[in-house]
Protein: 8-oxoguanine deaminase
Amino acid sequence: MPSTLTSTAPPTPPKTLLIHDADVIAAMDDQRTEWPRASVFVRGGVIEAIGPASELPTTADEVIDARGLVVVPGLVNTHHHMYQSLTRAIPAAQNAELFGWLKTLYPIWAGLTPEMVHVSTQVAMAELLLSGCTTSSDHLYIYPNGVRLDHSIEAAQQIGMRFHAARGSMSVGESAGGLPPDALVEREDHILADTQRLIETHHDEGRYAMLRVVAAPCSPFSVSRDLMRESANLARALRTRMHTHLAENDHDVAYSREKFGMTPAEYAESLGWVGNDVWHAHCVKLDPAGIARFAATGTGVAHCPCSNMRLASGIAPVRRMLDAGVPVGLGVDGSASNDAAHLLGEARQAMLLARVGRSLEPFGCDHGPAEMTARHALDVATRGGARVLGRDDIGHLAPGMAADMALFDTRTLGMAGGAVHDPVGALLLCAPAQTRHTIVNGRVVVRDGQLTTVDLGPLLERHNALAVQLANHRH
Ligand SMILES: [Zn+2]
Structure:
């Protein structure tokens, strides 16, 4: 009888994977170990051993020959709006600052459909995976035409990315003094009920979770104080995390002072939005008092350098935050304000922008170019992001950690004459490369530069057709 046979059969042993003989593995562990000629042995999606190739096994169910490659922990993206992949480089929004940019794009985004969310999420994730990113958050805050967060979640599960799905929301439209058009805002009771449904349906708080759900009202200028408070209560009751936008530019700060009589950090704290279960996107204009409060409370920041430059928002005081002890991760931010989703490239921009920022300080620079080294940037992109997302199972490579890794080829044009001196530094200092292989939870999702889980050609064709449809819908 089939059922008897099934129940008495020995369990299938977990699959093993060997990354064999890499030129160098930058583990980003507590000692920041960089092993030359090293291997990683993975069993059932978890790292079992890592170290010199001569001391590790030489066989496994699947072996990746890593000669010529540099291995780093999978990068972590802490802020994104993946649906915006459909509206990159829209001419009318190319040269606007935040509020004008949003007002130009809101009417276009009002045409978003469930298929558009699914397809654009996969495009954004494909781009991230090929840039070395293995875990991403996505902040979806627009729900017209039957769109649900479940549509992004399905897309993530199909492509095989570790995902922190943030249930965004907007509830204060133009007529109530908010920024978004009234037609794009939702009722607050519905937002809270849907957030609860999503957490109860999908959130996995276990170690090595591939999917977590986050409560994420959009911004001070698009939701009420009540919704911020109630979202925090819900998130804490259900033991999940909270995410929003904060202190993005001078107008954002002016709105907070005028509307609430507080700085953005004071506003956040007054609503319960500080703590080690909270992270805020941008914080370009976080003041010294805010930095101190964030450090004292463990409140995290998603640093989005490309978007901050694109929208002329400013230069976030990242070195000050890091020195104060604020958890800082990287975010590519939405695809319409970057307009790339290359996380290794974002780390490079974080490194470069921090150096520019310090050169602009009135009293000269303390660190000079060492304000942000290549390894600092890699640290923020890996360990920093993991901390911001509240994870102790990703962000560095060690036995017991999730097998999330990015493998880059050092024998390329972009790395020529660089990787031979310092393959890890060259990753950040040379042109941002795409991965040769990307591994998520022990599964090879990019092999030899190609996604193994989706067929990219037809996906892009459909995405581009939908992008045209969205831009041309009646709005
Ligand atoms: Zn954003």
